[in-house]
Specification:
two-stranded antiparallel sheet, single chain
Length: 341
């Protein structure tokens, strides 16, 4: 009997350990177990009472296990349901993402097409505006033929001036005197042709003729001063005046040019926007300057260098240069802007 009671006790202890490992022991089972353990002596004395208690404890434990299995099954069902819901939500999110990406691509294509159409429309508007501006400029600005005989003669004097200076520096005064004579003839000839031949007068010639004279005279004075035939002070006075006049001509060209003022239009010689009119004193001064450089060039050839008459002519040239510069500042008819009617 003692051996049997001990086996039952060990079985009870083992069942208790199993219940503790499952983590759920009811209050009734604990009380039954405590009653069995505290009345161990009674169990040893009365084995039938102990056996009935063990049966009650085992029955409750089985019910508890059944309840746990039901709860576990219900929990598994809930987890499976939640898992299916999660998969369904993930699927809907994936579909929504694909739809958003598709919408973005479609919107991007639509926006790109609109931008291309806007760009083409803008380019078309720019070209039309440019054509209209060009048409209006054709109306406002007068065009003329720059390739006239007087203009060609003026360009000839400008191109010849550097070579003339080189000849003077080489002490070849005879050739230099011949070139100056040729330049003077072309100066008289281009004015006569512009006044008497039809279609040879041009607004560009009003700029080009004085420019050619300034370049020729400045070259002669600088080279002759280098050769100690003309005083340096007189050369600085004449060159300074001519540089100021040329700069004024460029300013007048800019002021007379209708917008838009671009470099291509500024240097387009076919667009006549202003006309210069040199003063009478300036024409006289040019003649005196040419007379001075001509007689100075001839002085080494004919042997009258450093003659007092040359000094007097230099003084007259200086006075006429100053007076002509003042005349440009005082006179209001030295230039005028041109507009097509």
């Amino acid at each position: 009997m003692k051996f049997l009671s001990r086996c039952v006790f060990l079985r009870t202890i083992t069942s208790r350990c199993a219940n503790e490992s499952s983590g759920s022991i009811s209050n009734v089972n604990i009380r039954s177990f405590m009653a069995i353990t505290t009345n161990r002596r009674l169990a040893l004395r009365k084995p039938h009472v102990f056996a009935s208690a063990v049966c009650v404890y085992s029955s409750d434990n089985k019910k508890h296990f059944f309840n746990l299995e039901k709860k576990t099954g219900a929990l598994k069902d809930v987890l499976e349901y939640k898992k299916e819901q999660l998969k369904d939500t993930e699927h809907r999110i994936r579909l929504r993402g694909e739809e958003i990406v598709r919408d973005i691509k479609q919107q991007k294509e639509i926006t790109g097409q609109k931008l291309r159409e806007k760009k083409e429309h803008l380019i078309k508007d720019i070209l039309e505006t440019k054509a209209k501006v060009k048409e209006r400029l054709e109306i406002v600005v007068e065009k003329e033929n720059p390739f006239t005989i007087p203009n060609i003669l003026c360009m000839t004097r400008i191109v010849m001036s550097p070579y003339l200076g080189y000849v003077i520096l080489q002490d070849n005064y005879t050739l230099a005197l011949g070139l100056v004579t040729f330049a003077g003839i072309t100066d008289l000839l281009d004015g006569w042709i512009a006044r008497n031949w039809e279609g040879q007068s041009s607004k560009m010639g009003s700029f080009l003729d004085p420019l050619a004279d300034k370049v020729l005279i400045a070259t002669l004075f600088v080279s002759l001063t280098w050769q100690n035939l003309i005083p340096l002070n007189l050369t600085l006075l004449i060159v300074g005046r001519d540089v100021a006049l040329v700069a004024s001509a460029f300013v007048i060209r800019y002021m007379s040019l209708p917008p838009p003022r671009t470099l291509s239009r500024y240097f387009d010689v076919t667009h006549a926007t202003a006309q210069l009119a040199p003063t009478f004193i300036s024409k006289v001064n040019t003649a005196i300057q040419l007379l001075l450089v001509g007689t100075t060039l001839a002085s080494p050839v004919f042997g009258y260098a450093d003659h007092p008459a040359l000094h007097a002519l230099c003084a007259v040239t200086a006075v006429s240069t100053v007076v002509s510069a003042v005349s440009y500042l005082v006179s209001k008819d030295t230039y005028k802007f041109l507009k097509k009617s």
